[in-house]
Write a structure and sequence with these properties.
The chain is an alpha/beta fold and about 200 residues long. It contains five helices and five strands; from the N terminus they run αααβαβαβββ.
Length: about 200
């Protein structure tokens, strides 16, 4: 075969190889359960938030508010990631907030960073907005309860097999008295097997 023919054959092989390595994308439902790596994912975040919120608003502390016909005001504090992997706790916090607000059983107060931004806006309005449209300082709704928590994990591995255990702990604390009125936990255990080619 001539050098030119060799180059043509090499080009054809390269095209075939590249065409076989294309990316395939399939759209799936946002709430479908897909677990590829065995690590914490959006399904874990969503399901844990939903279950723990249901547990929180059915506990005794909430019944006391119902008796008084009051709606508790809650702010989310720090949810610490103490697991072995990187977890975007903001996504988890947003899931918790959404389920709590949509339950209609609590009112949410802006967190520390959000309050600063809102106060800056009020300060700007005080200087630049008409008196009729200004949002006044000193009229904030204070939170009565703060939700705090952490995500922990344990990994047990041997060869291509591993068991990943997560424990999520949340608590509601009265801001005035520092009393803990609710303690909740959720456990997840995953068995992960990796093929020899991935080891």
């Amino acid at each position: 075969m001539t050098p030119f023919g060799t180059r043509i054959s090499s080009l054809a092989v390269s095209v075939l190889l590249l065409s076989g390595c294309g990316t395939k994308v399939t759209r799936v439902s946002h709430d479908s359960t897909i677990d590829l790596s065995g690590e914490w994912n959006d399904t874990d975040s969503r399901l844990v938030a939903e279950e723990m919120v249901k547990d929180a608003v059915s506990a005794n502390w909430y019944k006391a508010y119902e008796t008084q016909k009051k709606i508790p005001r809650v702010v989310i504090g720090e949810i610490r990631n103490k697991s072995h992997e990187h977890i975007n706790t903001e996504t988890f916090i947003n899931d918790i907030q959404r389920y709590l607000v949509n339950s209609g059983k609590v009112e949410f107060v802006a967190n520390k960073a959000e309050r600063k931004e809102l106060r800056d806006e009020k300060s700007d309005q005080a200087q630049n907005s008409s008196v009729e449209s200004q949002q006044m300082a000193g009229e904030e709704s204070g939170a009565e309860l703060m939700m705090l928590g952490e995500i922990n994990s344990i990994v047990d591995s041997e060869g291509g097999k591993s068991v990943v255990f997560y424990q999520i702990n949340l608590e509601l604390v009265q801001i005035e008295s520092h009393k803990k009125v609710w303690l909740g936990d959720k456990k997840i255990k995953k068995f992960v097997e990796k093929s020899a080619s991935k080891l």
